[in-house]
Write a structure and sequence with these properties.
This is t-SNARE coiled-coil homology domain-containing protein. Keywords: Coiled coil. By secondary structure, this protein is an all-alpha fold. Helices cover about 100% and strands about 0% of the residues. It has a domain of about 80 residues. The protein is rod-shaped and about 170 Å long.
Length: about 120
């Protein structure tokens, strides 16, 4: 009988310990669930923030590309105007050179006539 009593006492102690252990595990499980919910909420917030930041970056990229396109168009327009001015200057220089060549030929003609006249006298 004594052994049965001792065995019952041991079983009772083990049962109490197991009950206490189960309640601790249940408390830990609740804490883990609460942490999981917080982590899930934070992940949702991070995803939302990431999408928002990605959207802002895309908007900035679009604006920057627009500015670059406008700048390229403006530069092309300015280069075209500059090219037109240079072409006009080139034409003027060619015309001026032709005029100088014409006048040089006339001066040379007159010089020959003057020499010829001065030799005849």
């Amino acid at each position: 009988m004594e052994q049965q009593t001792m065995l019952k006492e041991i079983l009772k102690a083990l049962d109490l310990y197991a009950s206490d252990f189960r309640s601790q595990i249940a408390a830990l499980d609740k804490k883990i669930e609460a942490i999981d919910k917080k982590v899930e909420a934070m992940n949702g917030e991070f995803r939302r923030k990431f999408v928002e930041i990605d959207k802002r970056i895309q908007e900035m990229d679009d604006r920057l590309e627009g500015r670059i396109d406008r700048l390229e168009n403006e530069m092309n327009e300015r280069f075209n105007r500059l090219e037109t001015k240079i072409d006009n200057l080139r034409i003027e220089l060619i015309e001026t050179q032709e005029t100088v060549d014409f006048h040089s030929a006339k001066i040379a003609q007159h010089d020959r006539k003057i020499r010829k006249l001065s030799q005849q006298q």
